[in-house]
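Homework help thread (please don't just give me the answer)

Our assignment gives two proteins as sequence + structure token strings and asks us to describe the second one. The first is just a warm-up. Here they are:
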Amino acid sequence: MKIGIILFGLLAWISCNEEKIAKRDVETIESEGEWVNMLATDGCSWHFEIPAEDKTMTYYLPDDNSRKEIEKVLGKKEDSYSFTKVRIRYSLTGRKRDVQCGWGATNSYDEIAVYEITKK
């Protein structure tokens, strides 16, 4: 009986440790950018514009969990033309999301997980 309890405890301990090993490290990026809605001018609905190293803009969409943090800091999204300068700390999720654009079009942008955002 004691051997059974010891084996059960050992298996439980091993299974708990495997979860920690399965987690992967993600690169966190901190940058300035803008939270933008240009749908009213035939652009795209709410998205982030982050300057890239080559002076172009990179476009990102937040994941579902990040939207709550964004609304808490920047307020509820409205359907108006808007540019809000932000400082953002995020990581890429490896997924894509679609965003509504003018003339009924959609674009697919990289999805990000937002860890921290401040209004500038």
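The one we have to describe:
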Amino acid sequence: MRYYQKHSFFPIVIILLTILLAGFMFFVFRQPSAKTSLSQEPKVVNEQAYREGVSVTLQTFEEQFAVSQDAAQKRLATQTALAALLELRVPVEYKDLHLQLAIAWNQIQTALQSGSQEDLTTSLKTIEQLKVTYPWLSL
């Protein structure tokens, strides 16, 4: 009795897929990406523009926070201020200020959601201390 092996196309399919993958990788890695060359160039951060941006953001936050009648409006004012702050490009010398403001506004959001008046007061005092440390924030 003879045994006939049924021929399978599986090895051929695997070989073709491997060749296609190798060809795809060759073309992807061969072409230099325009995005990487643009992102490698450092952009100059304007210190004065940062100061003005933070100052305006803080003043807008304080005005909106003061006229807010409920926690939802205060949360919205805080979210808007935090979003505006995070869009700014930060000079090296103001990284600590930027981080402290972002943390303070995040803590205000958390305090408003949880209803903790003590945490809210602490975060607002932190912002006031930052205004004393950086007098240009009040301009």
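TA reply:
I won't write it for you, but here's a hint about the kind of observation we're looking for: The two ends are 99 Å apart (CA to CA).
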